[in-house]
Amino acid sequence: SSGINADWPLRPGAASFGSPSWFIYGAYDKFDGKKSCRAMAVYVGTKAFEIVRGWMINYGGEKLKYAEGEEKTIGDTGCVMALNDLHLTVDCRPGGFPFVVHYDGYMLAHVELFERTGNEMGLCFENSRGRRLNWQIGNQNSRNQDCSISPVISECEEAAPQCAEFENACDGALARACRELSCGQTQPTSEQICSLSLARKKKCHLLGSNSREKLTGCPDDVCLRKFFVLGAGCPQDHFFTGCPVENYLNDGKTP
Asked: Of 46, 60, 137, 189, whose Cβ has the fewest other Cβ atoms within 10 Å?
């Protein structure tokens, strides 16, 4: 069972105050004109690390070096990470924490929760059935973003034909995410639509179903997507397999 899982485009955090305690805090910015998840700070017990745009792991102030497809333990946190199929997956179950984070390296993330004790809170669990409401940050689309909390799930009421393809994406979360990302704004970029398409595939897989929908907005050459995401983050050496760096970059590093 993949447990409780949720899309995380615009929701700022999740936590458990049980024993052992853990906390995930999302940091957001505007990238290509849309609000995006640029990083997640993960606290497990007394340890912490950061998952950053560009598939970077910051642990102890240092970039964790790894290769695509390689499983690597993040310091002494007990969490294990690996980059596969355009998603960086961080599994903290080996360290005794019942969650897995999947991040597309660009703007969208999923969180899987494998155990619920009643001590959890946060916006990613869709846990209106539990003891807490599915909280939302209020005023997120206004100039006064004061981080006030609203118990009402925000919905974009404007027409969003660009989001129609995500209406039947295993559940309604991705369509809502698409509407939130583009409500009252311009058409999402192809890279953003690609992220939503990848999220649809990932979400359906996590729910035990296979999405047969064709990826929209993604380049035919997967290496182009890899180097685009890498270039969107902090400069670092590439770590891909099957993508000769000389075919995509001049100096082996992102600009």
From this structure: 46
